[in-house]
Every structure is written in structure tokens, then in C-alpha cells.
Amino acid sequence: MKDQRNYSLLNHNTFGIDARCSRFLEYDNSEEAMEVAKLLRNDRQPFMTIGAGSNLLLTHDYEGTVVHSAVKGISLSIHGDMAWLRCGSGETWDDVVAWTVGQGIADMACLSLIPGEVGASAVQNIGAYGAEAAMFIEQVNAVDMATGLPAVINASDCHYGYRDSRFKHEWKNRFLITHVTYKLRCDRMPALEYGNIQNELVQQNTPHPTPQQLRQAIINIRRAKLPEPSELGNAGSFFMNPVVSRAEFERLEKQYPHMPHYHVSEAEEKIPAGWLIEQCGWKGRTMGRAGVYAKQALVLVNMGGATGEEITALCHAVQRDVKERFGIDLKPEVNIV
After folding, report:
1. From CA 324, how far away is CA 327, in angstroms rounded?
2. Residue 118: exposed, middle, or buried by beta-carbon count in 10 A (0-12, 13-18, 19+)?
3. How do residues 168-208 score in pLDDT, each as one tens digit?
4. Residues recognised as catalytic
5. Are strands 47-50 and 62-69 parallel, antiparallel or unpaired?
6. How many CB atoms lie within 10 A of CB 62?
7. pLDDT tens digits for 206-261?
């Protein structure tokens, strides 16, 4: 178990913010997670859990303890057309997707190249191109902070929603996740109609792709519009795509008949946040050392040396302009600390 004081989080957030925490604890198995839970209960200091920091914006030093999982391991159990994939919460998410695709399973291929770790998939309900983690999660293994004992949590109890779960609300800081189990179909190909997947497959001359070809198409799409954090600090999509009521959508559609949208239900439609931001003229603009990425308006970037406060100020400016023009409140997908 790693236990360090006055620890730099520079390598634990993809925005590249050099903030520090008072204490850093890292566990690499369930027994160490139980020990960490005991330390945190006795310490009585504030704490937060992080993964790879790919969904995190640090605005100041954290006067408390940061907890990170380094639990590794991937195992697969196949029964007929179904497969159960059990992963350590510290595994890199895209490594898991690549591994399953390598087994000939395409189910999670649309979630390729999403940054972060397995534990975060269960908390954040990560998603892209019509798929999300909740479609596959079967159960979550964790240590309950209240008792210090292992717990098995069924996916149905997590109340998954769009980029949401109980782990972000009433269960926040209650569990230290150690493993996540996903239930996959071995013979299923994801829907290919979302976004520009079909166009990419046509360019690859693979209209009926193998799992690996589909994964490569998703990687090509993401790399074309998302910057590498090593080049421009970022956390991927900064805002959630707003879901609006049918009445609100019809009001906007009258003003903007070519507005892109995705059907959610008879009562709701989803509007791409990137389109809203671009219509407000923010795509490619900078504000000090923070900016809106020139290839994808949904991404805020650290142009070099930006502080968390500068990126937050840019976030607020974008939110203000979208609210003034469209009457829509943009909500950050990124956790601002």
C-alpha cells in the first residue's frame, strides 16, 4: 500500500494541473482497501477517490486525503453466447476494451479510447456512440467505508443514468471499489448508426466490420477530434449533452431547424452540447491560458500553464453564453474540485 504526504497530483489529472494533496493512499487489493477504509475512518479528515484523473479539474491544493485504486487483473468466463468480464478497478479502461476486442467480443468496442480507469466506469457511467457502461455492468465489488467490510453491489441498485449513478450522490465516499464485473454478448455487434461511425467504416472499406475493425474506426474518430492530454491538457468532453423536454425542443427547433438532436423518449430529446457551444462562437477561442478546442467545441483545453481557476472561468463564460442564447443550462461532466 502506498501512503505518502504532501503528494503532487500532477500525474493523476489529465488537465496537467500541479496541485497537491495532504496525503495519498493507494491500494492494490481488497485487503489493502479494507486497511485504507480503517485509516480513513480513524483519520476523520476529508478524502476523495480518484481514478486516472481524466474527469477531474483541480482548482487548488486538496487539504485532505486522495485515495486511488491500483487493483489489477482481467478475467473472462464464457457460457454459451454470454461472457462475464471481471476487472480490477485500477485497470486502464481502454486496455480492457482492447483486451475484450482481442477475444473477438465487439460489445464494448464503441467505448474505445475513453480515458480513465475501470472503477470510474462504474461511478461515472461512461459512454460514447450510443453505448454506456451501465449497459454491461453486472455488479461492483467494493469495501464499505461504514463497516470496513467487502460489499457486492448489483448494477440494478446503482441507479444508473446519463453520466450518473448513486456513487456520485448518496453513495459518494461510501465505497472503495475494487472490481467491476461486466456481462457481455459474444455474438453481438453494436449499433453502427450513431454519429459518423458509418462514414468512417466506409472510408476503411469495412461496411461489415470485425470487432477489431470497429474498434479502429472508433479510435480514428476520437483521435480526429480529441487532443492527446500529453499535448494539450484536457478531460475529454467537459460538458454533458443536455436533455430537454419535448416542448423545449420544439421551441428551439422552430428557431434552429437544422439543429442536431437525438431521440431519448417521447418526452425528451438530447442536443449536442458541442453544437450549442459552437453556435455561440466559442470553438477555437481562448481566454487567457485556457481554450475551447478548435476541432471539438465540447473540449476545454489547457493551452499551457493554465490554472484550474482559469479553466473554470472559461467554463462559466461558455455556460453563460449558451444560457443567454438558447435558455439551456450546460452541466459539466468533469468533477471540479
Report:
1. 6
2. buried
3. 999 999 999 999 999 999 988 887 877 688 889 988 888 88
4. 163, 237, 333
5. parallel
6. 21
7. 888 999 999 999 999 999 888 989 889 999 899 999 999 999 999 999 999 999 99
Length of the chain: 337
The tens digit of pLDDT for each residue in 124-164 reads: 999 998 899 999 999 999 999 989 999 999 999 999 998 89
Cβ neighbours for 242, distance < 8 A, ≥ 6 positions apart = 270, 271, 273, 276, 328, 329, 330, 331
Helix locations, the chain, DSSP H: 30-43, 93-102, 118-124, 197-203, 211-225, 246-255, 273-279, 308-326
